[in-house]
Amino acid sequence: MFESAELGHKISKEEYDKEVPELRKNLLEAQLDLRDAGKFQVIILIGGVDGAGRGPTVRLLNEWMDARYIETNAMSAPTEEESAHPDMWRFWRSLPPKGKIGIFFGSWYTQPIVERVFKKTKDADLDESAERIIRLERMLHDEGALILKFWMHLSKDAQKKRLKKLEKDKEKGWRASKVEWEHFKLYDKFRKVSERVLRRTSTAEAPWMIVEGADARYRHLTVGKTILNALKERLAGKKVEAAASLPSALPPIDGKFLIKSLKYSQATTKNEYEKKLLKHQRELREIVEDSKFKKTAAILVFEGSDAAGKGGAIRRITGALDPRSYRIVPVAAPTGEEKQHPYLWRFWRHIPRSGSFVIFDRSWYGRVLVERVEGFCSDADWMRAYSEINDFEEQIADNGVTVLKFWLSISKDEQLKRFKERERIAFKHFKITDEDWRNREKWDKYELAVDEMIDRTSTDVAPWVVIEANNKYFARLKILKELCAHLKKAL
Description:
Low-confidence stretches: 243-248
CATH topology of the largest domain: Rossmann fold
Number of helices: 20
Shape: elongated
CATH architecture of the largest domain: 3-Layer(aba) Sandwich
Distance between the termini: 46 Å
Strand order of the largest sheet: 2-3-1-4-5
Structural class: alpha/beta
């Protein structure tokens, strides 16, 4: 895989000096066209062998283009704050918005490769990481991002010569550190592991470009021309087509829906509710105060029919918690900034650190519910969202976070009753809008969407708990009981 990057590619100084001015002009023009169009972002990953010119290449790109529209991310070992979140959290926070270029000097490839070389993981773990990366990059591509991946390569002899030369350089000697020499001793292992990863993750949506790094002029021209060509093609409207999506589910031929089969008659009296509420809240507080909980975290997702009582249920949970230990994230239509990033970006920003709760009042499921039914996204967007959401939740759960999702369901008649009550009572007017009435007209479409959502996204690591919510006392107690049970199991 690396043979063509060990041929001794070179560019003369005369040819380099001749080509660079035009290349820089064209790169800058393409970058400004990208900024003005604002339709997609560019994600550039710079990886490769120590001493192969990764740092100088990143610096040169910032010099050749307008650095105001480039976000450079030097991703080294995770900080204490980053280690308290899922692995991908720090990368999602650093993704560039549409119209800009994001350069990652060190990326989501670095840790899986290094851990395998140092035998902290096995081949199966490496392959699993590669598959997860493929899904991530496919999702970014499907969201419109242009992904360019450069691997700077040196032969073993060339790397040794480079490190020795750097070692003698008074100004650059620090670049030939003890770590670089330790890596050189493992050159063959790094090569083998890197080739395995690159081979698996070079896809149509995000192919790897292997660049020989021995000659700086050759390296710089190759990277610069590749970026320019890719930018021109995308700005001209050329894009690799997204992978085929799963077909949409059809309504059950026997007319049986999960939501329609719920027993809405279940109820709890007010007296019984008040007694059990305190019991469950005390139990929840004891769980959260347990020292074991400090090593984990919890994400609660509340979705449901309009007027199903999500807000009331959330307040009964937070009533048992220290205000410093939780955040409530109300999710509405995406802001202008959020629209400039891939869909899941705004949710990754709120993933909790260890020892805390985050409660989402509405969530990432808007894509397969409201956006699907109302036509706010394409069919391909919401159909591929199921696998993207499952992968997102799995990554969070793998980091020790308990993910629990509640769907609060009420009957159509009960919703009508609550809507009329909100219109009648002055202090509840804010709870009813014209949009609520419009959504009600599409009741059957939402039922189908909810059934399909639960079927496709209720997993062992992030289950859905369906709550019969016609009686608010019954619903709140069931939610608290289920929450305590899942947290106990997790601990």
